[in-house]
Specification:
The protein has 27 helices and 39 strands. The protein is an alpha/beta fold. The strands form six sheets. The chain has an eight-stranded mixed β-sheet, sandwiched between helices. A seven-stranded mixed β-sheet has the order 11-12-10-9-13-14-15, with helices on both faces. A hairpin with a 4-residue loop joins strand 37 and strand 38. Helix 17 packs across helix 18. It starts with 15 loop residues before the first strand and ends in a 17-residue tail after the last strand.
Length: 940
């Protein structure tokens, strides 16, 4: 008979798909009464040793009582979770709430005993560590603050699971048993451990797709042509080093030795292949994909690239088909790239994988490329090839239903073959996580991002992503804060990628310009000024300059301590006989490379106009790399001179640009990124202020939320907002209501003259330009006259809602805001007050929490910042006080996620101190955070 607690609602939000240490996936879910047979089957596959470690005694089988106990939970005091693959248990964990004597208890007891059991075949995959994260999150949700576990000393693996988790713990030894107790409150160390495990697992899942030892192409046609046949051909011609298989259920040959397609062993089903298949490329029509996925899952295929279309990009029916595809693949512990994907490429000589629709794979290089669009992927591959750039890996994710740019970024972070990452994104499924990963990756290697579909306001068809309310400019600013090199076009992405992959980072903004055209030099000089660089006067070598002259001038410029980088401009030069010199540009390219090699610490870029062959000659270092082996004869290619001729190191190739603006823009991005890298080494600290009353604010927020009738939250009354802000040291000047002239005079007497009279009606609020504010009213006569003028011009007092406020010291009017976006998280914004700043979008943004360095850079990030620092002889204002205010607002919204919006307007920053004249605070139940809980893949 079930007790009332046994009938507690099934907590479906505890279900999650997770990536394990080896890159495979598992599903975590609550154990229910329907799992009795699964539990028995699971237990039978556990070794006697593991059973002994679990129960401290021989325990060959579970009794009916045991099965009932382990499958019936009240989901409050007794909880059990299982990790499943293919619907079968591979591990279990449970907790039982206990009191101080170790006996079964109910709330408010806040301690629980926890125990695990992992099937031997799945030990070492990180299953227990992942289950611990999830059971700890469940326990915290149920009011449990501490776990206790008793482990035999010989069970070192389980002891390590607990000790490595990063929680604060206490260990004791009694009666031959190790007792571990640890608090479940996340710590900096536990969060760091969790994120490090996340990185390793997700990187490994991408590595499975990029470094397979065997590939099966499912959907290879019986005749030439078709997607499957094309992919198979591309794999062969790239010289894939592993085993290839062609699969098509319609093959009409008899089973047995010798069945082949284009020299590749052919089968009707993946299940018929005797050897292990690590990667399957699925190209069959969408309606046949489920069968192919099922066969792959049963065969133990590690990863799937689904090129097939007809999914979310085709409408609601396709979107549901896509969801089912992901659910099916994850049930087998497999990750999917796609559907509607273009494919993957890995140029490593150990792999030589071209599992894509690209007939000509890129040469080997140091750039990693990720795209969500196949069409853009084709264009980028072609453009990089023309510019002589090689790639390490290429991933085109299509609808990115499972594997996303975040996963690939995890892989590139530690990939020794990738020095620069280029990403074309049409949507960012988890901006908060992407920003975190980008910040970490950018400290090690440049990340260049183009975001498409940024002005449409909706995600591209086929992309299931959480909506963000932030405008594109804000998202762009936040990415730059994280060290991302944000460019506007794919051309700019390639331009920046070439410079970053082939040249060192500049140590500053000083640029030397030299060349054989004075006009081109001046254009370059102007472009440098426009992009915030500090160009030196151009050096004109005249049109008669020879390659030797270029080499000498470049060597001299690179050796000059007054410059940080050099841009060389070149047009066809004229010899003594009037003929154009070196029409193919090889001689000039050799001269420039020789000079650059003498000073490899400074970047060099070339701008060329109608100089045939120069760009190609400079790019030859990549295309003729000596250690790139020629494809084997079986791949359908013959060795060429380019694949065997030794050339200069491609890591120091000089990028060439057909326009000065493009070269300068790429260099400017490199300068800003280098500066970010230097500053990231000392990121600053989140300041602790002794006068902040965090606990008092939390208590008051709870009271205010309890008073609200609207579950979506509400904007606080002025007095409540002023009180809450005051607990964080943010003083808001009193504004007394003035419903009639007499009340206005009384308010002025209370506050003291001079005063300001202003309306608070929504259509006039903060619009001094419309005349809704009267300042410096020195006495009652002036106040009454101003009151009459306002009501005569704008309407009745009931409509205007006038208030009286004491005059603040003169200064610069600014605006400080903070908002919690459901996708990006908490964002702090700053700008000058007034219509002009709003019209021009001159607002800076930073992610919360804000450090003192962030606050300082935020104040200086807006174009109108000079007004704060003494523009045109005006007195500088108190920017340190402004930076402190920004940090206090940041602390408020970071400490209390219920504070979903704060607006301080205007904030008048004077020469000494500042005055907050208006404030608005909105409270609401905190939005769900998907970055602080246990690791989990996006739900489908």
């Amino acid at each position: 008979m079930q007790t009332p607690s046994d009938r507690h609602a099934y907590p479906s939000h505890w279900e999650a798909d997770v990536v394990l240490r080896d890159g495979g996936t598992a599903r975590i879910r609550p154990i229910t009464a329907e799992d009795a047979d699964r539990l028995v089957s699971f237990y039978e596959q556990v070794s006697d040793e593991s059973k002994y470690y679990r129960f401290f005694a021989p325990y060959p089988r579970l009794s009916a009582k045991d099965v009932h106990r382990f499958t019936h939970h009240d989901q409050v005091d007794r909880v059990g979770l299982a990790a499943t693959v293919g619907g079968e248990f591979i591990a279990t964990v449970r907790f039982d709430r206990i009191d101080e004597r170790g006996m079964s208890a109910s709330a408010p007891a806040d301690e629980a005993e926890v125990a695990f059991l992992v099937q031997d075949a799945h030990q070492g995959r990180g299953v227990a560590s992942t289950l611990l994260e999830h059971i700890a999150a469940v326990a915290r949700e149920r009011g449990i603050r501490r776990f206790a576990a008793e482990v035999l000393p010989a069970n070192t693996k389980m002891i390590k699971v607990f000790t490595d988790a990063g929680y604060q713990q206490k260990r004791s030894f009694e009666d031959g048993v190790v007792r571990l107790e640890f608090d479940l409150e996340p710590t900096d160390r536990s969060l760091a451990v969790q994120r490090a495990r996340e990185q390793r697992a997700e990187a490994r899942s991408v590595q499975r797709l990029l470094t397979p030892k065997s590939v099966a192409v499912i959907g290879v046609g019986r005749t030439q042509g078709g997607v499957g046949r094309s992919v198979l051909r591309n794999l062969r011609e790239a010289g894939f080093t592993g085993r290839l298989y062609a699969v098509n259920s319609a093959f009409d040959f008899e089973e047995g030795e010798g069945a082949e397609v284009d020299g590749v062993p052919a089968y009707r089903s993946v299940r018929d292949i005797d050897e292990t298949v690590e990667l399957a490329v699925v190209t069959v029509p969408a309606e046949r994909v489920p069968q192919a996925v099922a066969e792959c899952g049963e065969r133990g295929v590690l990863g799937l690239v689904v090129i097939s279309a007809g999914y979310a990009e085709s409408g609601p029916e396709g979107r549901e088909r896509q969801r089912e595809l992901v659910r099916q693949a994850r049930s087998y512990g497999t990750r999917i790239l796609g559907p509607n994907a273009f494919g993957v490429i890995n140029t490593s000589p150990d792999v030589r994988l071209n599992a894509s629709l690209a007939p000509h794979p890129p040469e080997r290089g140091r750039i990693g490329l990720f795209t969500q669009s196949g069409a853009i992927g084709i264009a980028l591959l072609s453009g990089l090839h023309r510019r002589g750039a090689g790639l390490s890996t290429f991933v085109s994710a299509g609808n990115r239903a499972d594997v996303s740019g975040n996963d690939v970024l995890q892989y590139w972070y530690e990939d020794p073959d990738t020095d620069v990452a280029l990403m074309y994104l049409e949507s960012i499924g988890n901006p908060r996580k992407f920003t975190r990963l980008a910040r970490r990756a950018a400290t090690a290697k440049p990340l260049v991002v183009v975001q498409g579909a940024r002005h449409s306001g909706i995600a591209p068809t086929g992309h299931a992503v959480q909506a963000t309310r932030l405008p594109h400019a804000t998202v762009s600013a936040l990415l730059r804060q994280a060290g991302v090199i944000r460019v506007e076009t794919v051309t700019e992405m390639v331009d920046a990628g070439l410079l970053l992959a082939g040249q060192p980072l500049p140590s500053g903004p000083r640029v030397a310009i030299l060349g054989n055209s004075e006009s081109l030099g001046l254009l370059t000089y102007d472009a440098c000024i426009a992009d915030g660089l500090r160009p030196l006067p151009p050096v004109d070598l005249t049109t008669g300059a020879t390659p030797g002259d270029f080499r000498a001038a470049l060597s001299e410029a690179l050796s000059d301590d007054a410059c940080d980088s050099v841009i060389v401009t070149a047009i066809p030069w004229v010899g003594e006989d009037g003929a154009t010199g070196s029409p193919e540009g090889e001689e000039l390219a050799a001269a420039l490379r020789a000079a650059a090699a003498g000073c490899p610490a400074k970047p060099v870029a070339v701008v060329h106009v109608e100089l045939g062959g120069l760009a190609e000659a400079l790019a030859a270092a990549t295309r003729t790399r000596p250690d790139a082996p020629a494809p084997p004869a079986s791949a359908g290619r013959l060795p060429t001179v380019e694949t065997t001729t030794a050339v200069p190191d491609p890591a120091h190739r000089i990028p060439a640009y057909p326009a000065a603006e493009r070269a300068v823009r790429a260099l400017a991005e490199a300068v800003k990124y280098a500066q970010w890298r230097r500053e990231a080494k000392e990121p600053g600290k989140v300041h602790e202020y002794e006068d902040i009353d965090e606990s008092g604010a939390a208590r008051r927020i709870g009271e205010l939320l309890a008073e609200q009738d609207d579950p979506r939250g509400a904007t606080l009354a002025q007095d409540d907002a002023r009180e809450l802000l005051g607990r964080y040291g943010i003083d808001v000047r009193d504004a007394l209501p003035a419903p009639d002239p007499g009340a206005a005079v009384a308010a002025a007497r209370t506050l003291g003259y001079p005063v300001a009279l202003k309306t608070t009606a929504p259509h006039l609020r903060h619009r001094a330009d419309l005349g809704g504010v009267r300042l410096d009213l020195a006495d009652e006569e002036q106040l009454r006259r101003a009151y009459a003028e306002l009501t005569e011009a704008f309407g009745k007092p009931a409509e205007l809602r006038p208030v009286v406020q004491a005059m603040a010291p003169r200064g610069v009017d600014t605006v400080v805001r903070a908002v919690i976006d459901p996708a990006a998280g908490a964002v702090l914004s700053f700008g000058l007050a007034g219509a002009a700043s709003e019209l021009l979008g001159d607002t800076g943004h930073r992610l919360v929490p804000v450090t003192e360095r962030d606050a300082g850079s935020l104040v200086r990030s807006i174009r109108t910042a000079p007004l704060l620092f003494g523009w045109r002889g005006s007195a500088p204002v108190d920017t340190p006080a402004l930076e402190e205010l920004l940090q206090r607002v940041s602390r408020l919204v970071d400490d209390h996620p219920e504070v979903v919006a704060v607006s301080l307007e205007p904030v008048v920053v004077a020469q000494r101190g500042l005055s907050v004249l208006g404030a608005s605070v909105r409270l609401a139940p905190p939005p769900a955070r998907n970055d602080l809980g246990p690791r989990a893949l996006p739900g489908y």
